[in-house]
Structures are given as C-alpha cells and as structure tokens.
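Lecture 7 notes: from sequence to structure.
We start with the chain below.
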Amino acid sequence: MFPPAPSITDRNVSNLHGKVFIVTGAASGIGLELAMLLYGKSATVYIATRSLKKINLAISHIESSSTPSKGKLVPLLLDLADLSTIKRSAEEFLAKEERLDVLVHNAGVMKPARGSKTKQGHDLEMGTNCLGPFLFNHLLEPILKRTAAAELSQSDSVRVVWLASLIAIATPTSGIVFDQDTNTPMIPSNQMENYMQSKVGNVFLASETAKRLGKAGIISVGMDLTREQSVHPGILLTNLQRTSGAVQKWLSSRIFRPARFGAYSELFAALSPEITSKGNGGFIIPFGRFGDIPGHIKSGLTSKAEGGNGLAIRFEEYCLRETQEYF
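Predicted structure tokens for the same chain:
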C-alpha cells in the first residue's frame, strides 16, 4: 500500500520537444497531472475527453501552472462510451499529426449508477474502460507503426499504456467471467467486482496488443519498437472516488496519495529506458517499477495450447466483435 518513492519524475525527464502524446481522461486527476508533466517538458499533448469545456479548463490550468514551455496542448473530443463517435476523434488527430509516440489509455469510470449503459447498450464500465479504448487503439495503430518505423535510433520509445488497477483484489477467480450463452463478460452483482473485471480486461488488452503489434512489421532491427504496458497507478485520490459515499471519501482523503504520484507511474511506463522489448506486455506498479501479475490472471495471458486458459485471447475477440462495425 505504501510503495517506494517514484523512480522517474519531472526532475529527471529530458526534453520532449517534437514528441506527440495522447492522454485520455486528461481533464482531471492522474491524466491532468501527466499532461502537465509532459507539457512541462515541451511535448505536444492531446487532452482527450468528452467535454470541450473541461478540456479548455484543463488547458488553462496547465498553462497557468507551468513554467514557459515549447510544447503544445491540443483539445481532442473523445467519448469512449459512444463507439460511433470514436473514429471521428481518431481521424481528427490523424489530420493534424504525422506521428504518435505514446498513447495513454488513462480514462475510466468506476462504480457508476447501477445499470448504467453506453450509447450502444454495453455495461458502462466495460464499455468505457475496455471497448472504447480498444477501438481507439485499433484506429491509431497505423500511425504508431509509422512512428516506430521512423524511430530506429530510439528503440522501444513508441508505447501504448493501459491503466489497470490493484488487480490482486476483488477480481473474479479467472479475472473475467464469461456468460457461456452469450460469450460476453457477465456483469457481477458486486459493483467493485464489475469495475475490477474491466481492469483485468485492460491487462488482457495490453498483453494481446503487445503480441499483435510486435508481429506487425515494426521490428526492422531485431527488436520490438512498440511497447505495451498496463499500469497500476497506486492508492490514489482522484475523480474516480466522486461517486463514493461520505465515509469512503473521508477515509480516502486521509490515506490516499495525490494524483501526481499516479502520473509518475504513467510517466515511468511512457518514458523509462528500463522498459525494453524483453518485457513487452509487462505490468508496472507504483510508483514506477516492475511488478508481477497475480497468478489467477496471469494464466489468462497464455493460450490453452501453452498451458493457460486463453482468456486474454477470448476477451480481445469479444472486443473485436463488439467494435468492428465502427472501424
């Protein structure tokens, strides 16, 4: 619960001028702190969320709180709970940029009102935390590949970061439980289990995307140029607690760390030279170090033929089925 000090902060990150980042959910919490850190190092940062008003407020806050920077803060409307709009968001980005160095899937929703659904009728947590990011990631994979191909002198620098959670706690036995009749994830009656199931989904997507991008022609010098990491940010006070009860909010304010510490974990996943192709698909824990995936979830990362249960493959296939009409 009380991890060591961050290994990477704004004090030991080099200049990022010319690098392009997308941070989803960057209008508040961890995402806002990460955007501020990156902008402070002169990066171009796309603030991607569904409210233009919140984006503009975030940009104003970052600019007023930062030292002079050669970076750029760019608004990008993105509603992960409406699959029909995500392609338009990706196309808007692609019309402006020729490269994408790091995509951070930071946005998420936790414990919304019971029965909440996305625009397409999916469970809101599974839709916002997994299906929307999966589709957005798919639409941006070509520019990630082009950027990696142009970065032969900076191997392992093009990355996708998936924000997971403390997945050893409150997750189903297998990580994700599928309904055998519909072949879709079941919705647990316990709201926290439902949230944690979607976070296991992020770990599965990190692993499967790493395998897919590693075989997509990116590696031209014998090494993996596109990195994939799922990140447990830590015990943090963020907007995810906005729907919690008064007692939980009070306890959180006493024991949770500020959101900036979660941004340090993401900063490590996005930039650390310690992360190489050998650990592709790995798991980062607070506040910037390598961790182990719990065994009951790790078995899902390998196929049945390899001795696992193949749940990561099954989950990605589910995401593909639900989103492919919006490609």
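Points to note: The radius of gyration is 18 Å. The first strand starts at residue 20 and ends at 24.
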